[in-house]
Amino acid sequence: MKKVSVCFVCLGNICRSPTAEAVMRRLVDEAGLSTHVSVDSAGTGDWHIGEAPDERAQRAAAKRGYDLAPLRARQIAAEDFGTFDLIVAMDDANVTALQQVAPSAGRDKIRLLMEFAPHAQERVVTDPYFGGDAGFEAVLDQCEAACSGLLSVLRPRLAD
User: Fold this and answer.
1) Residue numbers of the chain with a pLDDT score lower than 70
2) What percent of the chain has a predicted confidence (pLDDT) above 90?
3) Which residues are bridge partners to 37 per DSSP?
């Protein structure tokens, strides 16, 4: 069985991308694929390097049984495009920033997370940072739907 690596990316790596990382890790573990699918997250900005995820994201995630506490923010680097098979962005601004960091051969690895949730009405995962608790719940809803779809897309790749 092949291996696949995925890196979720948002602006600061303290709200959306660590949430997606935790959701995807659980789905991968539950599917018995943790030795075949590696998951990470990063931010396009450098403001929060080394910090734990936003407390509001941690609280919302904990209500659903996800533990974000061990995660630490880091900034995406050009080298990540050689490490990861997919670089999954939360919104269009993330995609633009990733295209600037990516070597030309790595740009085809960039995708929007919500592409993997075909029945969702939203194209992007909205940044909840400046909003209330409902925004963090919405991020979890979107991540759960899209990560489930992403795992379905990855399964055939693992078998190749």
Assistant:
1) 160
2) 95
3) 4
Residues near 108 by beta carbon (within 8 Å), at least 6 away in sequence: none
Q: What are phi and psi of 103, to 5 degrees?
A: -65, 155
pLDDT digits (tens, 9 = 90+) for 64-92: 999 999 999 999 999 999 999 999 999 99
Dihedral sign from CA coordinates of 138, 14, 128, 7: negative
| Sheet strands side by side (includes 37-43) | 37-43, 4-10, 86-89, 110-112
CB-CB contact of 89 with 113 (8 Å) = yes
Task: Assess contact for 6 and 84: CB atoms under 8 A.
Answer: yes
62 contact partners, CB below 8 Å, separation of at least 6: 68
What does the CA dihedral 7, 42, 16, 122 come to, rounded to 10 degrees? -50
Q: So what's the architecture of 4-9+23-159 in CATH?
A: 3-Layer(aba) Sandwich (3.40)
User: What is the rounded distance in angstroms from the CA atom of residue 104 to the CA atom of residue 93?
Assistant: 18
Q: State the pLDDT at residue 67.
A: 97
State the catalytic residues.
10, 16, 127
